[in-house]
Amino acid sequence: MAVKDLVGPLLTMTVLLLSFVLVTANGSYGKAEVAARGEARALDQLVETAEYAPAAERARIQAAAVCYARAVRAQEWPAMADGNGSPAPSIWSTDVRQSFKGLAGQPVFGMLVAADNKRSDEREERLTQATSSIPPVIFWFLLATLVITVTALGICLPRKNNRGQTVTLVVITALLTTALVIIRDVDRPFGGIIDITPTAITEAERQAHRDFTAHHPATDLPCDNNGNRQTA
To answer: What global pTM score does this model have?
Structure first.
């Protein structure tokens, strides 16, 4: 068998592999985006449900919700670019749950717990999707397959009058390389060029801060703009 007899199946295999991995990476990206929006909605629901709680608990829950959103936006979001999380939001989610203790037995207790559980589940899903869904060995295998395919195509080019074939090879190489770059970028949903921005959690923070200020205009938040606890 000549080299050219193997180029067709090799090119087909390369395209199929790239397509399959791209679909997998895109699925992970979509799940990360849905989780980020779901977390923001759950946090907004928590703040709205707190309206039915007594004044002291309502203030604590809404303040902790604002600080939680700030910690996610300012600290956890940049960390997710490298596939990591941050302990800062957990401080405020713990503060939220601590405020539920004084509401045990009241009708609002179950609604608050349900909203907070939803927020926790969505955050866990967001952090899970922040890590790469494609193992490094598969990415390097794709890269090696791409190099072998392009090399094989180059070997099959005629030595003379090959201008059209050369242009075609350049186009194929560019397309396959672009597909690999897109896979690499999409596989990091919170980093790279095609990233998920903290728009939803920022809007939830704005609304929570508005509600807190409306009910407690003379009370300061227990955190700074980055979600760090204020010290006396």
So the answer is: 0.84
